[in-house]
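Re: that chain you flagged

S.,

Sorry for the slow reply, it's been a week of failed gels. I finally had a moment to sit down with the sequence you sent. For the record, here it is as I used it:
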Amino acid sequence: MDDTLLLLTVAAVALVVGLAAGWAVQSTAVRRRLARERSFFGLPEGSECVLVTHRDSSSAQWSIPRHDALALLGLAAVIENCGAHPEVAPHDTGLQGFGARTEFCVGDPTAHRRLAAHLASLLPGVAVHPGDESGTGRGTFAVGGSSYRVEPGAVEYVLLARLTAGEGGRPVFLAAGQRPVTHRAAVRHLMRNRARLARKHGADGQFCLLLKVVNSQAYGPDVVELVADVTKAATTAAESKGHRAAS
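Prediction finished late last night. Pasting the structure tokens below so you have them in one place:
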């Protein structure tokens, strides 16, 4: 074998070894990332989860508001990637307690029974104003001593939470907003920031974030600002009582 052929052979072998090593490193990184994602969402391969939404009040048939449907589609991509099996359920259908399987609860807490129940039991420091007879003030959030009132199309708020309770330890994710566009914005924020949220709060950690959707009339769900991490205030029952007494 002459020197040129030997050099070509060595180069080819080195290339193959390098490609194999690169593939192995990349595969390991992908597996680790998937494992972290499954842990954060509580979605082991082959597990079951439920997506709970409410009905579109403007439709005579059972249907889901457009923005809520798009939010669920965003969640479905992650669920499929984790190898889990989703079920979609209406908010007023009798469901088991929480913790046995991961739950994604999306909607308006003044109309979504399951979501309202989760707020009462898991986030007792949050009060949601039902509105007066004319509807004024409907959906206003009160948490941490402050109130957040909706200005439709201009300023709207949504709570994004990951909570754990009950037997089984599977998390409940809440996107509780003042309008359907905010639910979609919250799910987008969760999808885009899931790795950072997992690092900050831990794979098994709890959090409750108050987000503001800015000028949805022009930008839809795309412009979202983090107002505050209200985890401590939202999970403290004593503050909730004060807000409800005031309202």
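What I noticed first: Confidence is low (pLDDT under 50) at residues 238-247.

Talk soon,
D.
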